[in-house]
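Hi again,

Forgot to attach this to my earlier email, sorry! This is the prediction with nicotinamide-adenine-dinucleotide bound. I've pasted everything inline since the attachment limit keeps bouncing my files.
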Amino acid sequence: MTNHTQWKALSESVVLRHQAYINGAFQPAVSGETFPCINPATEKLLVDVASCDEADVNLAVDSALQAYRSGVWSELAPKQRKQILLKLADLLEQHKDEFALLDTLDMGKSISEMTAIDIPDSIDCIRWTAECIDKLYGEIAPTGNDTLALISHEPVGVVAAITPWNYPLMMATWKLAPALAAGNSVILKPSEKSPLSALRLAELATQAGIPDGVFNVLPGFGHTAGKALGLHHDVNVLAFTGSTRVAGMLMEYAGQSNLKRVWLEAGGKSPNLIFEDCDDVKKAAATAAAAIFSNQGEVCIACSRIYVQKSIKAEFTAALVEAASHYQPSDPLDPATNMGPMVDGAQLETVARFIRSAKEEGGEVLLGGVPEYVEGQGFYAKPTIVSEAHNGMTFVQEEIFGPVLAVCEFDTEEEAIALANDSKYGLGASVWTANLSRAHRVSRKIHSGMVWVNTWGEGDSTVPFGGVKASGNGRDKSLHAMEKYTELKNVWIRL
Ligand code: NAD
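Structure tokens for the complex follow:
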């Protein structure tokens, strides 16, 4: 196993791609502009990255559209597309340490999370989706004897994927694997806070045999490159993961341009319901801590709202504080680290602001507190638990996207369900009970795309991922993801 010293040495030799990837080659932004990519653990410059805008978007969309129309990928036999995507997964596996380093340096996630979660999940997503391509059949509708109606799935054309910084490689693969598998051309715009792994992946895609123009990567800001993709008339699908605020803007761009389909994976404020009949309070507490403090709380499905039944509140809270004290923010290149820095100074300030507001609104800080920032030492925030919280408090309603946990209480099952559902979001939820009927009853009544019973955060390529309400629409992963990137076509034949 690679140790801290070895990861640090490797991080010094890793090559950082920094130009846009269009039509199978790296190139600077048309404007020549760049933006700085900063390591949040050291606040040092990693590299200046091409800052793409509308001019680069036009080039990338032209190239993607030409490639699509040429049929070089879109009309390839599914079996051939499968082989190329499998090769891409193999190449990613061969370079797994390099990709782990790229995201850790770029956004501060611990190297141990990268190697245990992000890398294997990304490889599996590409491999699993590739394996599906030549196993999907069309349909013949039961119309009657004198006609034949064929129903088939066709690629949509040009897909723009706009992704966030919290799982840079993983979020990119969740979009591009099914979009490419279906035969589309893809333009990926990674977050300006974490563009490095996407740029390297583009290079590997070419090496795997994905034809030029089929997979392009445009680093740049949301209001420039992202907006230009959203408004472009030749982009047919926008696949987005990010905040609810930006998700709404993408819907507007679609309305202002060509009614492109918009698939949204947006914010969350997931509840965690701990019932008194939960058979392992310590386990529930340890999982609750992991559900908010892993990846520094920069997790869309983070269970940031605990609702614990009054009768076990004291026992549960003591176990929670104990479990949380094992999360210590430190150098993300150390494999022993379980929490890295926040992605940047703005995110650290957001965390500080919400902790201040929680205190002002009557919350009792049981652990952590407002971060003590030291200039030049990284954007570290401690795990923070605030008790005596309730749904009327701002920090219980708003997504913080940091290591801040609200502990609220309830008396009855009905009350717990009502409190959990009293949120604009509906991404995930966790329920702890040994009562099978209650587990099913509560899971049915919770308004969210995903519910975990006596666990949290389980996921697999075979299972869809996504939310309801302001958490979005559509689903990543599983065969359901393919629906986002294909059109239904029917052909009638009179016999
Ligand atoms: P964000 O919305 O700020 O940015 C996401 C992406 O959108 C970035 O690439 C950004 O450049 C781009 N963007 C910003 N403004 C834009 C505009 N005007 N037009 C087009 N594109 C624009 O989100 P973030 O801070 O990068 O990520 C955190 C958010 O992502 C959180 O809300 C989190 O819950 C959410 N998230 C959701 C899921 C999910 O599956 N539901 C997964 C991960 C993260």
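The chain has two domains: 4-266+472-494, 271-460. The domain at 4-266+472-494 is CATH 3.40.605.10 (Aldehyde Dehydrogenase; Chain A, domain 1).

That should be everything now.

G.
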